[in-house]
Amino acid sequence: MYIPAAVVCCGLGILIRLANGSGKMTYQILRQAIPVNDLKGLGECLENEEIENPIVVVRGTVGSTSTVDKSDLGVFIEERAKLDIEVTDASGSVVPESKTKFVTRKEVPWYLDDGTARVYVCNYRLAEGFYDTLKQYFSREPFSTYLKTFDSDGKEKLMLTDDVDCWKRQQVLEIGTYLTVVGTAVRDKDGAPTISAYRFFNGHIELDDFVNDLELGLETGGNLSLYLIALSAVLVALNILRT
Predict the structure, then answer these.
(1) pLDDT at 93
(2) Four-residue CA torsion sign, 156, 157, 162, 165
(3) Has UniProt tagged this entry with the keyword Transmembrane helix (predicted)?
(4) In the chain, N or C: fewer CB atoms in 10 Å?
(5) What are the distances in angstroms from CA 182 to CA 1, 83, 132, 194?
């Protein structure tokens, strides 16, 4: 009984420690971010030769000179479709299944605007928190709209139910969204200041408060992982004594 419990405690302790390692990297990057009071001052930050590729925190409203096709406000739109179906498995049995497929992604260049300057944002799609800033829209569409998307690969036969639900989900970054962005300040090919995004936040965020909370969580997680690993060692010792 002691050994299984020891394995569980040790495993949890290691998982928490690994998660803390990733969190520490985020903490270190955010801790060194330089607050830029207004976007106009980003150029001055880049002119400081003592700081190479400075990590900064900036704020502003999303803007663009254009939008994605057939969109009034979207500068980034990612679309997925969800279909509730029945499929026949290898044994010939009919089983219900829900399928979600990526459909398309469209985007146009966009910038942050705080009234003093406009600064374009790049490398944003893989930045942490980006998808949390997107608005979601759902609509019901005819199955024929996504027939090719859900086309069978030959391994299974699709059987549509009488009440097929085919839902479209769009995730949209809209013009007018206010964001706090942490990223590396760089210059584009024309020499204009640009942000290579690392972390996104919805609205106005005081980064110091977020970093302090993150530090507290890392400290708690570190202590918990040590406790669990130590407990696993105690359980192993008890098992040895019993035998």
Answers:
(1) 76
(2) positive
(3) yes
(4) C
(5) 48, 37, 15, 12
